[in-house]
Amino acid sequence: MADGAAPPVLIRGTPRSRQAHLSGDLLLMAESAALYALPGAQAAALRAAMERGEAAVTARLAALGLTAAAAPALSDDLADDLSDAAPGPVRALALTVAQGCNMACGYCYAAGGAFGGAVRQMPPEVARAAIDRLIEAAPPGGAVQIAFMGGEPWMAKGLIRDAVIHARRRAAARAVRTGFSMTTNATLLRAEDAAFLAEHRFAVTVSLDGDRAANDRLRPMAGGGGSFDRVAARLGPLLEQADRLRLSARVTVTPDNLDIPRTVAALSALGFDTIGVSPMLASPTGKGALGAADFPRLLEAMIAAGEDWLEAIIAGRPHGFANLATALGELHRGQPRSVSCGAVRDYLAVDAEGNYAACHRFVNDPLGAMGDLSGGPDAAARAAFLAERRVEAQPGCAGCWARRLCGGGCHHEVLHAGRPACDYVRGWLDYAISAYGRLMAARPDWFGDA
Q: In this structure, is residue 49 part of a structural domain?
């Protein structure tokens, strides 16, 4: 090292091998997403092999009995998932019922709710036709999920009520189970609305970005003024129905609200017991998007929130931070991913004009166009999209140990922003693996509910 030169910075989770990753004494096999606890000496030997290159790693894994032939076989379902590029039947649908919003969040992925087009609401006949196609394609005894999205979906309250009743009636005729969800800013909800959502067992996600000061900075009302107090005033009826609906909060993380432990504490104080955070990587205006300098701070804040969660769970106390709980559950199940989510594979969105999109973020975006209601979902477009987006087709993912955990990242974010957050993602997953080992040692019973 030259005199005065800064020492190299070791980034948490930096790839050392495409075949495997070590977090402490826990070994992740990259392709199968299987975890193994190694004795200290074996972990040290594998770590040393990683410094010598892939051939040394292959030999060391073979000595541990972890050659490709000896690795745990994937289940038939997982093998199909990782080998079949064709999309399956659509089982989940997001109805963009309101392409408009009563708020003015600067970072909004929907560009103010209208997705860059005219403000409008979905006509009832479009909603019914989309629901009919979804349910008719489901086998008797099967299940479908319907999400109501925007903009702010509750601006189309009457349409939502009509759509739910219509879906219930059509599904009952085919013995198909229906589940409903909504992402809302909650500023328009009334007690009778909460009762309706509870009656139909909705999963309700409320968007909030922190305490009053942070939220009002990032999520102002369209006419000016903050939104925090308005949301807080509407939460009571939802919380009263907590035994009949699933209520959670969703936080969009920008450079202006990176204190995640503080955010989780503030939203817990409002009554939420499930709080998920999502980094803002791609913003239509550029406002609120995280930059390279923000990701180390984001990882530090996420780990701090994770440590709060671990401490509480090990002590037998509840804690609302959902990101670590979700990551630990996925690690425990050990299901390797070929894509990051169900978008296009079995989930699509429909906009107000009856056009299908890859997901709710691709509304009015030609990169995610997937046909329309007149002809049904475009099978060729879906197959081509998935073939291009699968992790096996992503050159930047081939050498990454985390590829089967993240599945290559959010399609919308990667297509619009590239992969600025890979170091952060690997760092978070490395932490999650270490947290998994600690929780397994202290509270293995927790995984019975994961």
A: yes
pTM above 0.90, yes or no: yes
Q: In the chain, how many domains are there? A: 1
Q: Locate tokens 């600690």: which residue?
A: 438
Nearest to residue 207, comparing CAs of 284, 299, 107? 107
Distance, CA of 133 to CA of 16 (rounded, Å): 47
pLDDT tens, 341-382? 999 999 999 999 999 999 999 999 999 999 999 999 999 999
**Cis before residue 225, ω within 30 degrees of 0?**
no
Contacts of 417 (CB under 8 A, 6+ apart): 281, 282, 289
Question: Is 34 inside a domain boundary?
Answer: yes
Q: In this structure, what token pair is assigned to residue 414?
A: 């990667």
AA identity, residue 167: A
Tell me whether residue 377 is in a domain.
no
How many whole angstroms separate alpha carbon 413 and alpha carbon 422?
A: 12
Cβ proximity of 188 and 230 under 8 Å: no
Whose CA is closest to 49, among 72, 25, 20, 9? 20
Name residue, tokens 């906009």.
351
pLDDT tens digit sequence for 281-296: 887 777 889 999 999 9
Structural domain of residue 29, as residue ranges? Answer: 17-73
233 touches 208 (CB < 8 A) = no
